[in-house]
Fold this sequence. Notes:
Number of strands: 7
Order of helices and strands: EHEEEEEEH
Largest sheet: 7 strands, mixed
Amino acid sequence: MEPKKFVSVLQMKEVLKKEIGAANPVKITKKNGETSDVYIRGFADQQTNILLISNTHASIGLKILEVKDIFSLEYPEGTKTVEGSRILHAKWLKKILMLF
């Protein structure tokens, strides 16, 4: 089992920027426990942490998700992020993680 990697909001946003338009989805777990595989489409604008996501590669329907509502971000098996871990956890939600 790999060690938990905790990242800040800014680091999470930078990682998500690199995934915009990627061919493979990432698994996002929200702080309410809901998990889904999504494609990252972009951000609403440069000043906010509002993420635009879709459920399929060819979908034109977008959903919004605030970066601070992300509990963890998981890449497909066999890939690693720049941070060197396949699963990134939200540092700002670390107290919630300690309960599990």
